[in-house]
Amino acid sequence: MSKPAMALALAASLALTASASAQQVRILGEHRSWTSYAADDAGATVCFAMVKPDSVTPTPDGYSQAYIYITNRPAENISNEFNLVAGFAFQPDSMATINVGGQSFNLFTQNDAAWLDDTGQSEALASAIRAGSSMVVEGTSAGGIRVTQNYSLSGATAAQQSIGAEC
After folding, report:
1. What are 12-21's pLDDT values in tens digits?
2. Residue 36: beta bridge partners?
3. Which of 40, 43, 36, 5 is nearest to 21 (CA)?
4. CA gap 41, 36 in Å, rounded
5. Can you give the pTM of this predicted structure?
6. How many domains does the chain have?
7. Which carries the bigger pLDDT value, residue 9 or residue 143?
8. Domain ranges, residue 63
């Protein structure tokens, strides 16, 4: 499993267990559309900010909930790692895009997940998210349908500050 896939799996599992095990995952804050979390993983703290889409058009067959995560893992010297769980399977070998405030970033996809194609753009994307008001993710489903997800950035700055302070 690749490092981004492991990070996504960890973030997803932490988010899913947040309500089941409050001692393992701590909610750092609820910031309008975004929520920030911290968790201890093998003695290292991992922090992430998460948002759900406001809309998904059209809704692909088999759609489940989508999430975007921005993750800090200080023990690995990683900050502002972008992860998307789309809620549907992407077309194999396809790319997706994220647009924030007129800036476009390419995402590579694998199954129902996507990450920045160029991880060197992590800080630029995190900065665009803090400065913007909305972001749009576009990708092609396994069934060949172009899907658009719209996300609010209301609270994104506070959520990123929250995880930055903890991690």
Report:
1. 444 443 433 4
2. 29, 49
3. 40
4. 16
5. 0.83
6. 1
7. 143
8. 3-166
Here the contacts of 125-133 (C-beta below 8 Å, separation 24 or greater) are 125/80, 125/82, 125/98, 125/100, 126/70, 126/80, 126/82, 126/160, 128/100, 128/101, 128/103, 129/70, 129/100, 129/153, 129/156, 129/160, 130/156, 130/157, 130/160, 131/101, 132/100, 132/101, 132/156, 133/101
What are the phi and psi torsion angles at 120 (to 5°)? -65, -10
Instruction: Specify the CATH number for the domain of residue 71.
Output: 2.60.40.1880
> What confidence tier does 83 reach under pLDDT thresholds 50, 70, 90?
very high
Q: What order do you get walking across the sheet with 146-152 strand by strand?
A: 25-31, 34-41, 44-51, 67-73, 78-85, 113-116, 103-110, 95-100, 134-140, 146-152, 55-57
